[in-house]
């Protein structure tokens, strides 16, 4: 069967940087408390008038350049913060990239979105629908987080990451798979934006104050994120016929430094095998995994030939993982 091979990588974060010092006093806490609880020192945020599509276009351009191509057959955009509720943001991103007439659609699996996007792109290639797919993870959570909420305001940042997938062979460097994906909708209320959807709008009543903001049940999410990411990694490795010792680097969703450490502990793996860039960008939701990949590739922590496990956990609840041998590419 034809496999999807990762052959290009590009990322972009908005230039505006918000260090912990800029929000600590407003939240009634300290820089040290924020860093100690999350591992975050700063995050990037969009300026007024900047949208998720702007970040996606920048990352997509860099990924296409990295792959030395100017065309793809499909574009999959993973995001929880589309430019508007309707239509999907992906077709507009494709148009701005000069990819008119290619298939383009959004995927919303919150922080697992990039993994779901990779699986979608892989399916398009395996089924023969596409020869090349651009998969983008982009989010602007600063636009949906209450700036005065201590539980969320310090955690999230904005950013975008993209990869190009091409048709190839399963034994090539960069070949993705297998995948492990899952969900648990009974816990959907642990991570959500209460207002703005059809359930709230159908009441014809104004949304309660603050219902337009993102909410998260931190303690419950913390436990479930560790359990599900570790469990997905183990299920994936069984499916792939691999062991934990076969993995050189783990690149998982940069939700919180303590969650990353918890996954390492549950898997019995040294934390040094887990890539992290959360201190510089915060939790960037669907952009998290590709941003971490680019950071690790750029600083030499990730090199060609290493076997890499990707994993994520997000609202829905959703989770997922996949594996590949890192190809010899230059991230854009």
Overall description:
Belongs to the thiolase-like superfamily. FabH family. Residues 254-258 are annotated as: ACP-binding. This protein has 332 residues and is an alpha/beta fold. The protein has ten helices and 13 strands. It has helices at 21-24, 31-38, 52-66, 90-96, 113-126, 198-201, 218-240, 257-267, 278-281, 288-298; strands spanning 3-12, 17-19, 42-44, 74-78, 103-107, 132-140, 158-168, 179-183, 191-192, 215-216, 249-252, 307-314, 318-325. The strands form four sheets. It has a five-stranded mixed β-sheet. It has a four-stranded mixed β-sheet with strand order 8-13-12-11, sandwiched between helices. It has a two-stranded antiparallel sheet with strand order 2-3. A hairpin with a 3-residue loop joins strand 12 and strand 13 (318-325). Helix 3 (52-66) crosses helix 4 (90-96) and helix 7 packs across helix 8. The protein is globular. The relative contact order is 0.20. The mean pLDDT is 97.
- Spans of at least 5 consecutive residues whose pLDDT stays below 50 are none
Helix content: 25-40%
Q: Which architecture of the largest domain per CATH?
A: 3-Layer(aba) Sandwich
The count of strands amounts to 13
Q: Tell me the β content.
A: 15-25%
The secondary structure category is alpha/beta
Q: Describe the biggest sheet?
A: 5 strands, mixed
* Gyration radius from CA atoms, angstroms: 19 Å
Helix and strand run: EEHHEHEHEHEEEEHEHEHHHEE
On the 0-100 scale, what is the average pLDDT? Answer: 97
Number of domains: 2
Supply the number of helical segments.
10
Alpha-carbon distance between the termini? 30 Å
CATH topology of the largest domain: Peroxisomal Thiolase, Chain A, domain 1
Q: In CATH's first tier, which class of the largest domain applies?
A: Alpha Beta
Strand order of the largest sheet: 1-7-6-4-5
CATH superfamily of the largest domain: Thiolase/Chalcone synthase
Shape: globular
Catalytic activity: malonyl-[ACP] + acetyl-CoA + H(+) = 3-oxobutanoyl-[ACP] + CO2 + CoA
Subunit structure: Homodimer.
Subcellular location: Cytoplasm
Pathway: Lipid metabolism; fatty acid biosynthesis
């Amino acid at each position: 069967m034809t496999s999807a091979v990762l052959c290009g990588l590009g990322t972009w974060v908005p230039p505006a940087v918000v260090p912990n010092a800029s929000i600590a006093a407003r939240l009634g806490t300290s820089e040290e408390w924020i860093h100690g609880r999350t591992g975050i020192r700063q995050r990037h945020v969009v300026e007024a008038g900047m949208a998720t599509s702007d970040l996606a276009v920048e990352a997509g351009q860099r990924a296409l350049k990295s792959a030395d191509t100017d065309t793809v057959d499909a574009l999959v955009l993973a995001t929880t913060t589309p430019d508007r509720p309707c239509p999907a943001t992906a077709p507009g991103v494709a148009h701005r990239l000069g990819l008119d007439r290619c298939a383009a659609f959004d995927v919303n699996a919150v922080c697992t979105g990039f993994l779901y996007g990779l699986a979608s792109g892989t399916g398009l290639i395996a089924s023969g629908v596409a020869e090349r797919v651009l998969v983008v993870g982009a989010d602007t959570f600063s636009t949906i987080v209450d700036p005065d909420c201590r539980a969320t305001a310090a955690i999230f940042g904005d950013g975008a990451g993209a990869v190009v997938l091409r048709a190839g062979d399963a034994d090539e460097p960069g070949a993705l798979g297998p995948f492990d994906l899952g969900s648990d909708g009974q816990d959907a209320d642990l991570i959500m934006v209460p207002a703005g959807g059809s359930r709230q709008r159908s009441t014809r009543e104004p949304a309660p104050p603050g219902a337009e903001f993102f909410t998260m049940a931190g303690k419950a999410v913390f436990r479930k994120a560790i359990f599900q990411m570790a469990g997905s990694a183990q299920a994936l490795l069984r499916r792939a016929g691999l062991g934990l010792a076969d993995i050189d680097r783990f690149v998982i969703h940069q939700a919180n430094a303590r969650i990353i450490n918890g996954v390492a502990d549950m898997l019995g793996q040294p934390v040094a095998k887990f890539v992290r860039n959360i201190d510089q960008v915060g939790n960037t939701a669907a952009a998290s995994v590709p941003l971490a990949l680019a950071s690790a590739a750029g600083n030499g922590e990730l090199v060609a030939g290493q076997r890499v496990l990707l994993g994520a956990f997000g609202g829905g609840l959703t989770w997922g993982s996949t594996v590949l041998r890192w190809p010899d590419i230059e991230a854009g």
